[in-house]
Specification:
Rossmann fold, glutaminase activity, 251 residues, cobalamin biosynthesis, GATase_3, six-stranded mixed sheet, hydrolase, single chain, binds glutamine, 30% strand, 12 strands
Length: 251
């Protein structure tokens, strides 16, 4: 199938209420890498009082505890059911930090306050006195079939997340704290949901992950024979390897 006949709808959830950590660059990376192949990408911005635009990819970034509480308190059951159905229909989700916590069962903040999650992912999170900040390098879960390529990112959270039986880790930390600083896991995967603690320009830094997300969304919308035209990623690769070298990790 020619890439030029394809299009994707991408919804950016809570772009104003939960967007304190520079995660919006991920939307730009998705859009550009679609467009460079002639795949049309339509971006929809849906905040608290908007209905959620049905899409092929949902992106939802991180935010402070207070923003998480506001979003949690304003989530209708209808919206929770809608997102749950989308997850079960194998729509693609990328969730970062605060939204990862909110898609889980609950988050206990630093005041001991319980913020209800949507209960879609089998995880729970508790704030800890130690803030987990810094560069992260992970090896991805083999199930994703991302090859040996690592993922690099930057974490900044106090929440420690623990995984239930219904989900698997997105990856395993080589450097960084990951989900909780204990068990070496980072993030979760469930169906086509990827949730992780990797803030900022996660997708610009990891073009292989961006393409994985685009491909999964196209396969889910059209068929599993879609292939993506190769792009020249030499600059991205140089930046990727420079960071790995600095962290003394082999690519
Ligand atoms: N409540 C969060 C925490 O663990 C969210 C922070 C974030 O999204 N970076 O600190």
């Amino acid at each position: 199938m020619n890439n030029k006949e394809l299009s994707l709808d991408i919804t950016f959830l809570f772009p104003n209420t939960m967007s304190t950590y520079g995660d919006s660059g991920n939307i730009l990376a998705l859009k550009k890498r679609c467009e460079w192949r002639g795949v049309e990408a339509f971006i929809h911005y849906c905040d608290i009082y908007d209905s959620i635009y049905p899409s092929d990819i949902y992106f939802w970034g991180g935010g402070q505890d207070i923003a998480q509480e506001i979003v949690s308190n304003n989530f209708s059951q209808q919206k929770i059911d809608f997102l749950n159905n989308e997850v079960e229909k194998s729509k693609v989700f990328l969730l970062i930090c605060g939204s990862y916590q909110l898609m889980g069962k609950y988050y206990i903040d630093s005041n001991g306050n319980k913020i209800e999650g949507l209960g879609i992912l089998d995880v729970y999170t508790k704030s800890s006195p130690k803030r987990m900040i810094g560069n992260v390098v992970i090896e991805t879960n083999k199930k994703l079939k991302l090859g040996n390529k690592k993922i690099i990112g930057f974490e900044n959270h106090s929440g420690q997340t623990f995984l239930g039986k219904g989900v698997e880790p997105f990856g395993y930390v080589k450097i960084g704290f990951g989900n909780n600083g204990f068990d070496k896991t980072e993030g979760v995967i469930y169906k086509n949901v990827i949730a992780c603690y990797l803030h900022g320009p996660l997708l610009p830094k990891n073009p292989h992950l961006t393409d994985y997300i685009i491909l999964k969304a196209l396969e889910n919308k059209y068929d599993s024979n879609v292939t993506l035209q190769k792009l020249d990623d030499s600059l991205e690769l140089k930046a990727f390897n420079t960071l790995l070298n600095r962290l003394k990790i082999q690519s």
